Amino acid sequence: MKTVNHCPRCHHELDEGPIIYRCAHCCRAVYAADIENEFVPRQQQVAVAA
């Protein structure tokens, strides 16, 4: 059974590694060890002044 990994930056599907995965969308390289543990910053909230 194949598991699908997603890019931590753009959330598109990564290629089939096995050591370094690559995202065709944003051209990012992600090590397999970092897929589950990579920090993904939260989107900044924009305050609306009334």
Molecular structure report:
With 50 residues, this protein is mainly β. It has one domain (1-36). The chain is 0% helix and 12% strand. It is built from no helices and two strands. It has strands at 20-22, 29-31. A two-stranded antiparallel ribbon has the order 1-2. The chain is elongated, with a radius of gyration of 14 Å. The protein starts with 19 loop residues before the first strand and ends in a 19-residue tail after the last strand. This is DNA-directed RNA polymerase subunit RPC12/RpoP. Keywords: DNA-directed RNA polymerase, Transcription.
Run of helices and strands? EE
Main β-sheet: number of strands, strand sense, barrel status? 2 strands, antiparallel
Low-confidence stretches: none
Structural class by sheet pairing and helices: mainly beta
Shape: elongated
Residue share in helices? Answer: under 10%
In percent terms, what proportion of residues is strand? 5-15%
Topology:
Layout: E1 20-22, E2 29-31
Antiparallel strand pairs: 1-2
Concise overview:
The protein is built from no helices and 2 strands. The protein is mainly beta.
Salient structural properties:
50 residues
